[in-house]
Write a structure and sequence with these properties.
elongated, about 170 residues, 2 domains
């Protein structure tokens, strides 16, 4: 694998160096220009998918100007078997949008988990007040049950996350 990883651009190699990438995947990456190699490597890492099939799908969605050599008409047609050029363009656009959305979600995940944890602690403190708990039980028993169920689920997820982090370290 070291020879294969050295056959692609350094940026893509850096992203994939600690990943379990099939050697045949590097052959697919070499068919793309450096910029596209880096984009594809980022998507592979983002989706945790290093398979040859995934790399080939991303190759099929690669605009011709980002390929090492432009494909002939026959090769271009085989890239999008059964697809018209408009459909291929739409797939390329959707793939780029999905990748951007995934990166946005990855960046906001930590903040969202922290916010959720703070909200859960606040609700737990509110429910620790016997008067408020009694009022909710009398007037809004269904909502109280849902809140308790959500808090139990949050505690379980937090406990599992901590255990996984401990095991990984």
């Amino acid at each position: 694998m070291p020879d294969d990883i050295n056959s692609i651009c350094p940026e893509a190699a850096r992203l994939l160096q600690n990943c379990n990438v099939a050697p045949s995947t590097f052959a697919v990456l070499r068919r793309m220009k450096r910029l596209r190699q880096e984009e594809v490597a980022e998507r592979m890492v983002a989706f945790s998918n290093y398979s040859l099939a995934f790399a080939e799908r991303l190759l099929a969605l690669t605009p011709p100007q980002l390929l090492v050599r432009h494909l002939t008409k026959g090769q271009a047609a085989s890239r999008f078997v059964g697809q018209c050029p408009a459909r291929a363009k739409k797939l390329q656009h959707e793939e780029a949008e999905l990748a951007r959305e995934l990166l946005r979600l990855r960046h906001s995940y930590g903040k969202d988990v922290l916010t959720f944890t703070i909200y859960c602690k606040f609700v737990e403190r509110l429910l620790a007040n016997p008067r408020l708990e009694h009022y909710l039980r009398e007037k809004y028993s269904g909502a109280l049950g849902v809140l308790r169920f959500a808090l139990i689920g949050a505690r379980v997820r937090t406990t599992l996350r901590r255990r996984i982090v401990t095991i990984v370290k």
